[in-house]
Amino acid sequence: MAAAELNDNKKTRLVLILVISLVCGMLILGFLISSLIKKRELKRAFDIDVKDIELPMFDLTTVTNATENFSLTNMLGEGGFGIVYKGTLTSGQEIAVKRLSKNSGQGLQEFRCEVNLIAKLQHRNLVRLLGCCLEGDERMLIYEYMPNKSLDHFIFDQHRKTLITWRKHFEIVMGISRGLLYLHQDSTLRIIHRDLKSSNILLDNNLNPKISDFGLARIFGGDQTESKTKRVVGTHGYMSPEYVVDGKFSVKSDVFSFGVLLLEIVSGRKNWKFHHSDHHHNLVGHAWKLWNEGRALEVANDIAELLLVESEVLRCIQVALLCVQKLPQDRPTMASVVVMLSNESVTLPQPKEPGFFVERSCDETDTLPFEETCLTQNGVTISVLEAR
Ligand SMILES: *[C@@H]1O[C@H](CO)[C@@H](O)[C@H](O)[C@H]1NC(C)=O
Ligand SMILES: *[C@@H]1O[C@H](CO)[C@@H](O)[C@H](O)[C@H]1NC(C)=O
Ligand SMILES: *[C@@H]1O[C@H](CO)[C@@H](O)[C@H](O)[C@H]1NC(C)=O
Ligand SMILES: *[C@@H]1O[C@H](CO)[C@@H](O)[C@H](O)[C@H]1NC(C)=O
Questions:
Q1: Are 124 and 206 in a shared domain?
Q2: pTM (2 decimals)?
Q3: Where, in this chain's numbering, is ATP bound (predicted)?
Q4: Among this protein's residues, is 363 annotated catalytic?
């Protein structure tokens, strides 16, 4: 009797162990298969896109040697999806290498977007992609090297901003607006950049501006003029109200960012982080306030020589205010912006109230209608926010 019970007990335990190990085995197998499929899918999606384009391929050894084994002394900066290094090819040509950090799914998507987009674009005010490097799990983009870094190094630096004349400032503004016009309507595609900001404007030997970083850009087909996303990605201070609140983006959201950038160039101050002893507005609000008081020129009072070119400076401020108007349909297109900036005899409309014209309750708080936290701080890289 006792022996039979013991036997039964043994049997059930054996069955239990068998069942458990079977289930575990199946789970592990399922997991392995699904991750394998995922990996292959990622790889396939990537391969197809790269096959479509004619882009020179760089060997890993060439890039490794050029960047001295990706040494930290050659690091130029850290972007949205990886580190950027400076390199020198054996020919003496200088390059900038953007290396995608491994296991970055989001980064891979941005990388693909950048490869697909920028390879098809050519304009003197867009940064030029020389090629890419895809070996093993390495994903790298190789650009022409920009010796004068990005615009934010100049305009926000007390000393360096005095090195460039107002004429050069104005040429930089014109260059950016022509580059953006090309993206919006002059290339064969209609492209929304979505992350236009001072640190994404690179400067070449002669301080010609080049728009860079197309990782967040979107292509519009045919008659499409607007799109919507649930994943609002961009940089604080540059995003338009309809994009932040509803996730809607269009050429007019880029125009908003351009307007902010233009005010930053004229004033030498950052929109996000702007402080004034008289009020709690950001730079846009500050400019709007001065405009209504007939003191718009004071927006630019940091640049001494500006009094000589008063009309040009005022024109820039007025165009900037037109670009940052609250309603997208009130904002001009980049084609009008280029005309308004370059032709002194064109009469400009009166700007209406800008977007985000709300006074901050306290200096350090967020003006945006968000409860969510952002991943990174003010402008250095990218803030990811979910639209409500
Ligand atoms: C590596 O770089 C050095 C200079 O830094 C150069 O002399 C050498 O030829 C390069 N080697 C290869 C394989 O490119
Ligand atoms: C790069 O690393 C390899 C092997 O790790 C080494 O042989 C080579 O000397 C290094 N080159 C430089 C320029 O540091
Ligand atoms: C821009 O870069 C060139 C080449 O490196 C340099 O000669 C020039 O001084 C730089 N301009 C400024 C304003 O720093
Ligand atoms: C500038 O604008 C005026 C008035 O709209 C126009 O008559 C003139 O042709 C424009 N000049 C240029 C160079 O486009």
A1: no
A2: 0.79
A3: 98
A4: no
